[in-house]
Each structure stands twice: as structure tokens, then as C-alpha cells.
């Protein structure tokens, strides 16, 4: 961990991305303190005020809510959904992948066919369909996007496990009579974790965008909660008279995703320059 | 070869069956489909009548069997809202999506390949760095926001281009760019790394030793080999284009399958939802089947690899 931090410090790109992300986490955690106004406070008389007017630094939306405060609170949803889905989907997928790669046989066949099915389908389409049926809620978004996340983890974990299990130290561990659990936990997992972290960083970027897409389409987090995607979806209708409502949350979204992608890209080069884009 | 084709065909049918089954299961995910579709302000008798008319009162297995039996005939049932066969609605909207996706695919191929090749050939120069950070940036722009920004700049401020609907090539321009951007960036990065792989191979060294001009080495020897993995990914990319079409078509009011899907979902028209999901998977599986088979023809190594395992 310390070695990783030292390398991050030496790369300007990674350091910038890291600082932006740290800032984002800080904003999300301190949102109630940092936001200048109540993100839900409606003020019809001040609706669609341009940035700077009436004390609204980034203007107001169609019912007069402060855009800056809503962007700050929106960071919480984006980060929470992103991190939660990557943790749930990532752990689930990785465990299945390791099991498939270690035990082989029919277990592997079944799991990998499931991966094929999952990947045979645009996950956002399935997510939208499920969300429309189960109804908008934060919990549903997390569940649906976690389901959409597991397959790439599974595929990478299996591939890595297969190659690790060909190594002599695993043969040695098996012949020493160590239990499967111990071998997987102590000998396989530490040797395959780096590629999985790289997958996780790209999955985080994807899921932040996917949450915003769902909320944009009106089937994600309920509109009462400020989200970047939801703000964009509402602001889109006022594009001709109030550009800022749809533009500014998008910039926050893009900057966050760009930082995550930069860090992921750097991590991949750092761990293994030969790993290719997939 | 025949064995490989048979194996791929079987796999395609299996995936289609699985997706169709998931689409069928979706209907019952939220409990009673009849109540879900016509809402709760109807009387119990009306809902019961509707349930009977739609056949939801039959045993689940019978419904499932009926549903599966209809698929090979292209029978996805009847849309609840529009009282038209689902297949007719899909076929009516499909050309628009095909037009949009084809335009996007055209942009992807003719923008990403030159950028990727140039980046690889000029590795670690300023041009390479600019192109690759540009690509990473483009991958970070959410599709729907990009669409909105293009509308704002070219439609609202500059008034150069129409921002909604379908018709002329000008109508096509903004949606196609919106849909293509993410994939273009991803493919450009892939072309670059694939080119770099190939440029390190022995036969490239041989070509250089023969004294062939650089452009011949790059564009004749290297690019042809570098494109093999790119073609596979392009096939897979069709899947993200179908997903992207859902959002792009919504932003630009493009009358295609994507918009039909969202309308079906919002109207809770379950047979239509099932139909578009299965149809989307069908298109995706067919495209990838064709890609796999065609490139096993181009590259004999893939066939022998498959055969070698047994």
C-alpha cells in the first residue's frame, strides 16, 4: 500500500486524479456542511435564476432550488451507488471466478455460461427494464447495477486463477495438504488481486455513469433525492432558456468519471503494462 | 471447421433461449402482471377479465411454453397498449435504429482506426499522448450529457443543425456523433495496443530488414494483423451501441427501437418489453456469430486453436 502511494506521488497524472477523487469524497462526506443552501428548498420566485443571481453561485433550477447545493449533495449518491455496486458485484463475481478457475469441471462450465449470457446483453437495457418493474429506489438501483457488474470480475478472476494454479507454489501448497479455502484465500487471492483492482476502477466509472443514466431516464433514484443524472434529466427541458441547469451537473459527473478512469488507466500500466484494453 | 460452426451455433441458440427466459421472468418479477399493467384504479372484475384475456390466468409453465413456441415464428405476442403484434412495432422502428447504428459504426471505424494506428506508430510522442488522453476523456463523457451539450451548442446557440427527429443526413449527424463517441474512444485505444503488439513481432522486423518503406510495413503488414482482435470487439461493441441507442434516441427523439423500449417500459407494456429485449439479444447474437465465423475464415489459427483443445 505504501509502495503504491509512493508511485502515485511520482506520477502527476495519477496524483491529480487521486486529489480530485479525494476532494469528491470530501465533498460527499461533508455535503450538509459545504452546501450553501438546502438542496430541496423550493423558491418559485427565484426559478431559473442565472449563476450569480440572488446569492445562487451556480443559479437555480426550474423550481428555484440552488444548483450548487444540489450538485454537492448529488456527489453522495454517485459515490455511494458507485462504490456499493462495485463492492457487491465485484466480490460476488470474483468469488465465482476464483471458484470456476480453481475447481474447474462442471462448476466452471455453468459459471462461465452464465457470464456469457450476462455479457450477451447490454446491461443498461436490462437495468432499465428491471428498474421500471420494481420501481425507483436507491436500494433497487444498487441491486440492479450490482447484477450488471459481476461478469467482468468473474471472467478476469477465472483467467488469473487458471494461470496462478499452474505455478509451482500452488502445486506445493496442494501437496502439503492445505485446505482449499486456505489455498484460495492465502495463495491464490493475493496473487490475482491487482488485475481485479483495475477491473474495479473501470467498473466504478461505468457504474457512476449508469446510475446517472438511470436517474436521467427517470427510473433510478427517486426525483426527491438530488442526483446528477436526475438534475440533467429535468434541466434538459429548459435548455433553451437556462443552459446551466443541465450543463453543470454533467461537468461534475464527467470530472469524477474522468478521474476514476485516469487512476484506473494508471493502475493498469503500473501493475502490468501488457494488460490490454477490453 | 464444421465442428466449430456447429458449436458456435449451439451457443448462440442457448444464449437466445436464456435471454428470452429472463425476459419472460421479468414479467412476473413484480407479482401480478395484470395489476402492474392496467394499474390499481380498475375494479377486481376488470383486472380479472384482463388477466383472462391476456392468458395470465393459465399455469406459468403453459405460458412459458407458448411464449417459447412463438419465438421461432417471430411471434412475441400482442402489445397491450397498441393492440398490434409486437413484431410489427419492432419492425416498424428497426430501420431508424439500423440507420443510426450504421452511421455510428461508420464514424467509429473511420475515426478510431486512423487515430489508433497513428498513436501506435508515433508512440510516446506528443501526438500519441494527446490522442490517448483525448480518448480517455471521451470515454468519460456520459452519452446523454454529450447529446444535451451538442443540442445546446449546435441546435440552440449556433442553430446549425436540427436537434430532434429523423429525416435528412443533418438530422442524423448529432445523434450519430453522440452514439459513436464512447466506442470510438475505446476502439482507438484498442487499435493502438493491438498495433503495438504486432509491431513487436518478428515478421515486422523481417519486413524492416528487407528494406520495405515504413508506410508499407505499417499499413500492409501490421494493420491487417492488428485488426483481427479489433473486429471481434467491434462485434461486441454492437451490444453497447444497442444500449447507447436507448439513451441517444431518447435525447434526440429518434423514432427507433431504443425509444420504443423506453416507451414500452414507461407504459408498462410487458409483451412489448419482452419483445424488444429478446429482439435486441437476437441482433447482438447474430452479429457476433457472423463476426466469429467470418474471422475464423480470415484467420485459420482460430479454428485450429478450437480444434486443438480436444
What does this molecule look like?
- The complex is a heterodimer of chains A (278) and B (310).
- Chain A is mostly helical.
- Chain A has one domain: MetI-like (MetI-like fold), CATH 1.10.3720.
- Chain A has helices at residues 2-10, 12-29, 31-34, 67-103, 105-119, 123-134, 138-147, 150-165, 168-175, 180-217, 228-235, 243-271.
- In chain A, helix 2 crosses helix 12, helix 4 runs antiparallel to helix 5 (105-119) and helix 4 packs antiparallel against helix 10.
- With 310 residues, chain B is mainly α.
- Chain B has two domains: 2-73, no CATH class; 86-309, MetI-like fold (Orthogonal Bundle).
- Chain B is 80% helix and 0% strand.
- Chain B has 13 helices and no strands.
- Chain B has helices at 2-29, 33-38, 44-54, 60-70, 86-121, 126-140, 143-157, 169-199, 202-209, 214-251, 257-266, 270-298, 300-308.
- Classes of the chains: A mainly alpha (278), B mainly alpha (310).
- At the A-B interface, helix 5, helix 6, helix 10 and helix 12 of A face helix 1, helix 6, helix 7, helix 8 and helix 10 of B.
Amino acid at each position: 500500500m505504501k509502495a503504491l502511494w509512493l508511485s502515485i506521488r511520482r506520477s502527476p497524472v495519477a496524483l491529480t486524479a487521486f486529489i480530485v477523487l479525494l476532494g469528491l469524497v470530501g465533498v460527499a462526506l461533508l455535503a450538509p456542511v459545504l452546501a450553501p443552501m438546502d438542496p430541496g428548498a423550493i423558491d418559485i420566485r427565484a426559478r431559473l435564476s442565472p449563476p450569480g443571481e440572488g446569492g445562487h453561485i451556480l443559479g437555480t433550477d426550474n423550481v428555484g432550488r440552488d444548483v450548487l447545493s444540489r450538485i454537492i449533495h448529488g456527489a453522495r449518491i454517485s459515490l455511494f451507488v458507485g462504490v456499493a455496486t462495485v463492492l457487491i458485484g465485484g466480490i460476488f463475481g470474483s468469488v465465482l471466478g476464483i471458484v470456476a478457475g480453481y475447481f474447474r469441471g462442471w462448476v466452471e462450465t455453468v459459471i462461465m455460461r452464465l457470464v456469457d449470457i450476462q455479457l450477451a446483453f447490454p446491461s443498461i437495457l436490462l437495468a432499465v427494464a428491471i428498474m421500471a418493474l420494481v420501481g425507483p429506489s436507491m436500494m433497487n438501483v444498487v441491486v440492479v447495477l450490482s447484477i450488471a457488474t459481476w461478469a467482468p470480475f468473474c471472467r478476469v478472476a477465472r483467467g488469473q486463477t487458471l494461470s496462478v494454479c499452474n505455478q509451482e507454489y500452488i502445486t506445493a501448497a496442494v501437496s502439503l495438504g492445505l485446505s482449499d479455502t486456505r489455498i484460495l484465500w492465502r495463495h491464490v487471492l493475493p496473487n490475482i488481486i491487482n488485475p481485479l483492482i483495475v477491473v474495479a476502477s473501470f467498473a466504478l466509472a461505468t457504474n457512476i455513469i449508469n446510475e446517472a443514466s438511470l436517474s436521467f431516464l427517470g427510473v433510478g433514484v427517486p426525483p426527491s433525492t438530488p442526483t446528477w443524472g436526475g438534475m440533467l434529466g429535468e434541466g434538459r427541458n429548459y435548455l433553451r432558456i437556462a443552459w446551466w441547469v443541465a450543463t453543470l451537473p454533467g461537468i461534475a459527473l464527467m470530472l469524477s468519471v474522468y478521474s476514476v478512469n485516469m487512476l484506473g488507466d494508471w493502475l493498469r500500466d503500473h501493475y502490468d503494462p501488457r494488460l490490454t484494453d477490453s | 471447421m464444421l465442428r466449430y460452426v456447429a458449436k458456435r451455433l449451439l451457443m448462440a441458440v442457448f444464449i437466445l433461449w436464456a435471454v428470452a427466459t429472463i425476459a419472460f421472468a421479468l414479467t412476473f418479477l413484480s407479482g401480478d402482471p395484470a395489476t402492474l399493467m392496467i394499474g390499481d384504479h380498475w375494479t377486481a372484475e376488470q383486472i380479472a377479465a384482463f388477466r383472462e384475456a391476456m392468458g395470465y390466468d393459465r399455469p406459468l409453465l403453459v405460458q412459458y411454453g407458448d411464449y417459447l413456441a412463438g419465438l421461432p415464428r417471430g411471434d412475441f405476442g400482442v402489445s397491450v397498449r397498441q393492440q398490434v403484434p409486437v413484431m410489427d412495432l419492432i419492425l416498424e422502428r428497426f430501420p431508424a435504429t439500423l440507420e443510426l447504428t450504421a452511421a455510428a459504426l461508420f464514424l467509429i471505424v473511420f475515426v478510431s482506426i486512423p487515430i489508433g494506428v497513428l498513436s501506435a506508430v508515433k508512440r510516446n510522442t506528443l501526438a500519441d499522448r494527446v490522442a490517448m488522453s483525448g480518448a480517455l476523456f471521451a470515454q468519460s463523457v456520459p452519452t446523454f450529457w454529450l447529446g444535451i451539450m451538442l443540442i445546446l451548442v449546435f441546435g440552440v446557440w449556433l442553430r446549425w443543425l436540427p436537434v430532434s427527429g429523423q429525416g435528412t443526413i443533418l438530422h442524423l449527424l448529432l445523434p450519430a456523433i453522440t452514439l459513436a463517441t464512447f466506442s470510438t474512444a475505446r476502439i482507438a485505444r484498442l487499435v493502438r495496443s493491438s498495433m503495438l503488439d504486432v509491431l513487436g513481432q518478428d515478421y515486422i522486423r523481417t519486413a524492416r530488414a528487407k528494406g520495405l518503406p515504413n508506410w508499407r510495413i505499417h499499413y500492409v503488414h501490421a494493420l491487417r494483423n492488428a485488426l483481427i482482435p479489433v473486429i471481434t470487439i467491434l462485434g461486441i461493441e454492437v451490444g453497447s451501441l444497442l444500449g447507447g441507442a436507448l439513451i441517444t434516441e431518447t435525447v434526440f427523439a429518434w423514432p427507433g427501437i431504443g425509444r420504443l423500449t423506453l416507451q414500452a417500459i414507461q407504459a408498462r407494456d410487458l409483451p412489448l418489453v419482452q419483445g424488444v429485449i429478446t429482439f435486441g439479444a437476437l441482433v447482438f447474437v447474430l452479429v457476433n456469430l457472423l463476426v466469429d465465423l467470418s474471422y475464423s475464415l480470415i484467420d485459420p489459427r482460430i479454428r485450429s486453436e478450437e480444434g486443438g483443445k480436444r
